[in-house]
């Protein structure tokens, strides 16, 4: 898997003349309304970490799940980079990022919001039948429904439906229309239900038998075989222990952590094979295969 590319930085940055792009202008307007924002590169993903933060060597930002000492001024750590600090948004490094950016994003929970991301027309139809009306924003394929209040994020809580709030970002696509409603219990229940691992029984899955990672698929990995296997087995054990609930989220966390260890490898590192093993373990304890696959894919892609 190709790791996110850092923004192109000058070797000796000089004071950068502020040339507000439309995206930076939108970001400044959001920041003025206390909505933390960040730029996204091509593919709607955050910029990669700087060298000091690669592989989470800096310890992570204080707002991340595992608090750390990072005070990096660059656009590092994905959603955790989102800020309302005007000086940061208009700093030389960030201005160069805005000039390369393809979209702007925001951290919903940072503004006490929850976004129900409806990825297709079927999902929109389901929401109209099942959820209280609120402010809506059209997207490329569906809609964002925005509620007032923050909660835990989760993927694939319904077909084509993701919840984005804590530890997540959503694309800024405009203010939308309609009156914002307070976060209803029916939305919170979606995450609780999806996080509950089904009771014992036969699991229907197309995931093949466990494919072992080996050096033949990781010719560009800088780690030893023992390091890879130890990290993987510890991660699989964490998923295996989630027999009652939370296996899907655990699979996401394991995939993200393992991918972070390879942030500075030249690659390839065989992350897709590691991902298949994580999916297989999650499915084995009852996580629906589509949810497990989506969680692992997001975890691998979110290692920034």
Low-confidence stretches: 9-17, 199-210
Structural class: alpha+beta
Q: Give the biggest beta sheet.
A: 6 strands, mixed
Q: Which radius of gyration do the C-alpha atoms yield? A: 20 Å
User: How many beta strands in the DSSP annotation?
Assistant: 10
How would you sum up the global shape?
A: globular
Structural summary, described in words:
The protein is of the alpha+beta class and 304 residues long. β5 (135-138) and β6 (143-148) form a beta hairpin. The protein contains 9 helices and 10 strands. Strands 4, 5, 6, 7, 8 and 10 form a 6-stranded mixed β-sheet that branches. A 4-stranded antiparallel β-sheet has the order 2-1-3-9.
How would you concisely characterize the structure shown here?
By secondary structure, the chain is α+β, with helices and mostly antiparallel strands. The protein has helices at residues 22-32, 86-89, 92-100, 121-130, 185-194, 225-240, 247-260, 271-284, 289-301; strands at 37-41, 45-46, 103-106, 113-118, 135-138, 143-148, 154-158, 161-164, 170-171, 181-182.
Q: Top keywords for this entry?
A:
globular, 4-stranded antiparallel beta sheet, alpha+beta, 304 residues, 33% helix
SSE blueprint and pairings:
Layout: H1 22-32, E1 37-41, E2 45-46, H2 86-89, H3 92-100, E3 103-106, E4 113-118, H4 121-130, E5 135-138, E6 143-148, E7 154-158, E8 161-164, E9 170-171, E10 181-182, H5 185-194, H6 225-240, H7 247-260, H8 271-284, H9 289-301
Helix pairs in contact: 6-7, 6-8, 7-8, 7-9, 8-9
């Amino acid at each position: 898997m190709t790791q996110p590319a850092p923004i192109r930085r000058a070797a000796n940055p000089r004071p950068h003349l502020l040339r507000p792009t439309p995206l930076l202008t939108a970001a400044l307007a959001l920041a003025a309304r206390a909505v933390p924002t960040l730029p996204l590169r091509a593919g709607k993903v955050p910029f990669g970490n700087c060298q000091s933060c690669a592989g989470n060597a800096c310890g992570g930002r204080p707002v991340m799940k595992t608090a750390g000492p990072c005070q990096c001024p660059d656009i590092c750590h994905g959603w955790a980079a989102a800020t309302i600090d005007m000086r940061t948004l208009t700093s030389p490094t960030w201005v160069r990022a805005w000039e390369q950016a393809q979209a702007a994003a925001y951290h919903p929970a940072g503004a006490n919001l929850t976004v129900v991301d409806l990825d297709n027309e079927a999902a929109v139809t389901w929401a109209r039948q099942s959820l209280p009306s609120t402010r809506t924003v059209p997207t490329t394929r569906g809609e964002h429904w925005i509620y007032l209040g923050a909660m835990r994020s989760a993927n694939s809580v319904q077909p084509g439906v993701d919840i984005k709030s804590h530890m997540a970002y959503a694309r800024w696509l405009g203010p939308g229309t309609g009156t914002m409603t307070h976060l209803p219990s029916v939305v919170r229940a979606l995450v609780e239900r999806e996080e509950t691992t089904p009771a014992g029984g036969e699991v229907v899955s197309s995931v093949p038998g466990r494919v072992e990672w080996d050096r033949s698929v990781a010719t560009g990995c800088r780690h030893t075989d023992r390091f890879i296997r130890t990290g993987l087995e510890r991660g699989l054990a964490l998923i295996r222990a989630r027999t009652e609930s939370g296996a899907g989220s655990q699979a996401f966390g394991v995939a993200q952590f393992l991918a972070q260890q390879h942030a500075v490898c030249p690659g390839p590192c065989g992350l897709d094979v590691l991902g298949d093993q994580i999916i297989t373990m999650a499915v084995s304890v009852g996580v629906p295969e589509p949810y497990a696959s989506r969680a692992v894919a997001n975890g691998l892609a979110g290692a920034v």
